[in-house]
Amino acid sequence: MPTTPPALRAGDQVAIVSTARKVSAEEVAAAVDILTGWGLTVVLGESITAEHHQFAGSDALRARDFQHQLDAPEIRAVLCARGGYGTTRIIDRLDFSGFARQPKWIAGFSDITTLNCHLLALGHESIHGVMPLLFNQTGGEAALESLRRALFGELVEYAAPPHALNRPGSATGELVGGNLSLLQNLTGTASDCPTTGRILFLEDIDEYLYNIDRMLVHLDRTGKLRDLAGLLVGHFTDPHDNAVPFGQTAYEIIDTYARQYDFPVAYHFPVGHEPQNMALMCGRVARMVVDAAGTRVEYA
Q1: 1 in any annotated domain
Q2: What's the CA gap between 130 and 107, in Å, rounded?
Q3: CATH of the domain at 98
Q4: 110 and 207, same domain (yes or no)
Q5: Do 45 and 94 share a domain, yes or no?
């Protein structure tokens, strides 16, 4: 079973860093205020305000910053400020041996799927959830509260309404997943995420429909769908199509492959690049139930 980092308590220090795209102190100022309101002390990492083209500083700087926060005993959680691209460029520079002796919560989503999967491969839970850049987005209050509850060790449960493509059933397994593009990109690496017997959740943004199909083909051919306990399909935001239409929506594409198997499937689950992005503990055993009333997920 993956290890669970200690829950945060009032007075703890947390760090905000960027492992991917650049971000300014002004863009995370609202998050600093919110975290302070939760009773936490916020430390801004070296990567906040750093710039190297589109990145939050060079690969070396971002790796150094993240490593420092991993190793600093006074830092009890590390929140990734935003996604974009860049985490895979530094993941193999990082040393998690100190982290293993003193685990702490790492939280983020999108490009941070790399960290979520890498930590799980090393045997540690992490949080797939809203990032500081988006803490004050309109309509994101429930997602932010779910992150707070996850960090502080409080009960977090989830629900989604019925969807025409849902396949009823129940399943129990460790939650794994995140951004579909990253999950495909990590296949065959040290950050690869086995899915057998687990509940997989998927989301993505700004992808062409044909490419969503291509990634599902790849997941299926590599056996990542065959032995799932269950599948949660989140937001597939702002998909694109070609002049000659692909002919299916993102959900219909996923259904094409999921229907080959008999695990329960839930669509329109509140996770991904939209304000309804509930915090999921990657590696935590959860139970999902899909029936006529919709979908419910709770931790075992």
Answers
A1: no
A2: 8
A3: 3.40.50.10740
A4: no
A5: yes
Residues whose CB falls within 8 Å of the CB of residue 90, separated by 6 or more in sequence, listed in order: 19, 59, 62, 63, 66
Q: What is d(CA 216, CA 127) in angstroms, rounded to the nearest whole number?
A: 24
Nearest-angstrom CA–CA distance, 52 and 260: 45
CA distance 175 to 164: 23
**Separation between Cα atoms, residue 226 and residue 138, nearest integer Å:** 38
Our count of domains for the chain comes to 2
Residues 6+ apart with CB under 8 A from 279: 107, 127, 128, 129, 130, 143, 146, 147, 149, 150, 156
3 within some domain: no
Same domain, 166 and 130: no
**Domain end (from 104, 120, 151):** 151
Query: Residue 246: its pLDDT value, please?
Result: 98
Q: 236: part of which helix (H) or strand (E)?
A: strand 230-237
* CA separation, residue 23 to residues 131, 170, 237 (Å): 12, 41, 22
The per-residue pLDDT for range 240-281, each reduced to its tens digit, is 999 999 999 999 999 999 999 999 999 999 999 999 999 999
- Residue 253, in any domain of the structure: yes
Q: Give the residue numbers annotated as catalytic, written as ranges.
A: 110, 203, 273
pLDDT tens digits along 163-192? 999 999 999 999 999 999 999 999 999 999
300 has a pLDDT exceeding 90: no
Between CA 220 and CA 97 the distance in angstroms is 33
* Burial (CB count within 10 angstroms: exposed 0-12, middle 13-18, buried 19+), residue 242: exposed
The domain that holds 182 is classified in CATH as 3.50.30.60
This prediction has a pTM of 0.98
CA dist 43 and 32 (Å) reads 9
Please give the single-letter amino acid code of residue 193.
Answer: C
Domain that holds residue 93: 13-151
